[in-house]
Predict the 3D structure of the following.
Amino acid sequence: MNQVVIALGSNIEKERNLPAAIKLFREMCQVTAVAPIYETIPVGLLDQPNFWNTAVLIETDLSPEHIKAEIIEKVEQELKRVRQADPNAPRTIDADIILFNDEVREYAGLDGRMRQIPDKDLARFVHVALPVTDLVPEGRHPLTDEPLKELTDRLYQDSFQEGKPVIWMTYAPLAPYVSEFNATGNLESDVEQLFFQHDCQHIYHHVKNVAEKAAELAERFGANVEHCVQGALLHDISGVVPNADRVTLAQQLGIDLLPEEISFPMITHQKLSVVFAREVFHIHEPDVLSAIGCHTTLKAEFTLTDQIVFLADKISWDQSGTPPYLDELLKALDQSIEAASLVYINYLWGMRDKLRVVHPWMVAARETLLTQ
Ligand SMILES: [Fe+2]
Ligand SMILES: [Fe+2]
């Protein structure tokens, strides 16, 4: 199997076209990773809209010629078709093969012109090098053997020295939600800041309660208190994204959504919160990100931290009144944390016919709990 990195860029209706291109790649070949989307200032001709750039890593038996003819050409055609009303408009998507394994070679494009692998732009432009490096962080430039990380750092520094800060909004799709946000490094006040900027005071109060409860459970069950508190503070952070925008945002971020999540967008908030935690709050601890990512549903292979954030959220729930399962859940906690998780999941399971969707992760978590 060949490992191929393809760079993507768009500056016409990019909010739609770049995610659409990623989706088409997924349909036509095996995409094994997608880089973050970066907003970048155009190079050369400056008087045009900013770009969104990213890259995809694909696994394929095809040669570069066939990838170009059978995949890239089709993606470009498909997305051009969207704006046929204006035949003179610039291209909606650019897709170029940047790396093909770690080979150095040429191939013929459809116009017969020879193209090089690695693509020359890899060593020239930070907006190409950066997402490529995200996909193959340990990679080296096949021609020069320079580590891609060093190449990217150098291009980034150069772009400033030339007086043109080329990039920079990682995860550009999150930008509309964090345009006023200034991180201080104090997680609790940063979370408060973002919620208040979006008039989500009620969610802030909820996550504060969940964090308190999570700290208490962490002490009681010997978990990592800091991880549990961080997970609790951030678990609903994507509550700043209106429900109606969640599926679109998830697609722009390259998040894989299950059919259940598309039909009931509220559940996508656990996956969206992970991206906010990582990209906006710079939390990279897998234990914390895992707990955020399954706090609504749990999952087949859950950790102690996952269960604590999950249960703290159910005990300090965000609706009025007392949760109907609360007494039983608290009693079960005297037995074990797993018993308590099962109480809540069985509560949902008992009314599964009335639920909008039954999330497969929850079904899997229940099976794990039942066999313990
Ligand atoms: Fe939640
Ligand atoms: Fe919550």
Q: What stands out?
A: Residues 206, 210, 235-236, 313, 318 surround fe (ii) ion (ligand 2) (CB under 6 Å). The mean pLDDT is 89.
